[in-house]
């Protein structure tokens, strides 16, 4: 499985859509506080439809708490990839493995520069011709399904 991590997400429908995608593909979703919404918000549940209660979801008080748990559960054998417009390599050039985490920043700010600069080898970008960035849910879908493809990615056939 691939872990999808949303760092301080702000827009409930994006998080709901990403939750639905994680549920449909059998991958966990991690939310890092502070959240820009309440988890009981109608728009979050509407986007996630009735799948939200079945989603493998973890909510963390801050990134440090997530990172400690991540490192304590075999983190040395797994990688975190930071999706950012500041990444030097395309997301398809990363070498994903099952158990890795894909970290996405808040919609209006992206990931903090200090977080990305800690490990520039793990900073990846989704190539774009125009514009500043894609919608968070779109970016998460692009990233997750590329990682699954590299890992033998037939979600329907049960290979991932």
Walkthrough of the structure:
- With 160 residues, this protein is of the alpha/beta class.
- The chain has a single domain (3-150), classed as 3-Layer(aba) Sandwich (Alpha/beta knot).
- 32% of the residues lie in helices and 16% in strands.
- The protein contains 5 helices and 7 strands.
- The chain has helices at residues 12-25, 42-48, 63-72, 113-117, 136-150; strands at 3-7, 29-32, 57-60, 80-83, 89-90, 101-104, 123-125.
- A 7-stranded parallel β-sheet has the order 3-2-1-6-4-7-5.
- The radius of gyration is 15 Å and the shape is globular.
- The N and C termini lie close together (6 Å).
- This is Putative tRNA (cytidine(34)-2'-O)-methyltransferase.
- InterPro entries: Alpha/beta_knot_MTases, SpoU_MeTrfase, TrmL, tRNA_m1G_MTases_N.
- Keywords: Cytoplasm, Methyltransferase, S-adenosyl-L-methionine, Transferase, tRNA processing.
């Amino acid at each position: 499985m691939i872990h999808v991590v949303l760092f301080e997400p702000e827009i409930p429908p994006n998080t709901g859509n990403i939750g639905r995608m994680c549920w449909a593909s059998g991958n966990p979703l991690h939310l890092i506080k502070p959240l820009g919404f309440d988890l009981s918000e109608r728009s979050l549940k509407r986007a996630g439809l009735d799948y939200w209660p079945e989603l493998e979801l973890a909510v963390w008080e801050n990134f440090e708490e997530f990172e400690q748990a991540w490192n304590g559960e075999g983190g040395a054998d797994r990688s975190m990839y930071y999706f950012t417009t500041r990444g030097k390599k395309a997301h398809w050039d990363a070498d994903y493995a099952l158990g890795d985490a894909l970290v996405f920043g808040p919609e209006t700010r992206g990931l903090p520069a200090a977080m990305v600069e800690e490990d520039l080898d793990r900073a990846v970008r989704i190539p774009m011709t125009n514009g500043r960035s894609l919608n968070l849910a779109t970016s998460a879908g692009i990233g997750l399904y590329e990682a699954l493809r590299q890992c033998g990615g037939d979600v329907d056939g049960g290979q991932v």
